[in-house]
Amino acid sequence: MLKAHQSFPFINPSGAFFTILSLAMLVVFSCIGALAAWIPAYQGSHIDPSTIMTRGEFD
Predict the structure, then answer these.
(1) Do the beta carbons of residue 47 and residue 59 sit within 8 Å?
(2) Which of 3, 13, 36, 51 could be a cystine partner for 17, CB 3.0 to 4.6 Å?
(3) Phi-psi map region of 11: left, alpha, beta (phi>0 left; psi -120 to 50 alpha)
(4) pLDDT per residue over 2-59, tens digit each?
(5) What burial letters (b/e) apply to 11-36, b meaning 16+ CB within 10 Å?
């Protein structure tokens, strides 16, 4: 029905749009992944090593 009446035109996005979008998504997801790895490592770095060695495995 929309195609028959052409109530709104569809313009195909350009290749530059897809390139910029994919690079932006790559940067965003890389930052999220780095943050997800950094937070536990940062929290674990504040634990005293002697506490871990005396307790065994840290909960």
Answers:
(1) no
(2) 13
(3) beta
(4) 666 666 677 788 999 999 999 999 999 999 999 999 999 998 888 887 777 777 665 5
(5) eeeeeeeeeeeeeeeeeeeeeeeeee
Alpha-carbon distance 58 to 21, whole Å?
42
What are φ and ψ of residue 6, in 5° steps? 45, 55
- Give the predicted TM-score (pTM) of the model: 0.61
Dihedral of alpha carbons 35, 36, 37, 42, sign: positive
> How far is it, in rounded angstroms, from Cα 50 to Cα 57?
12
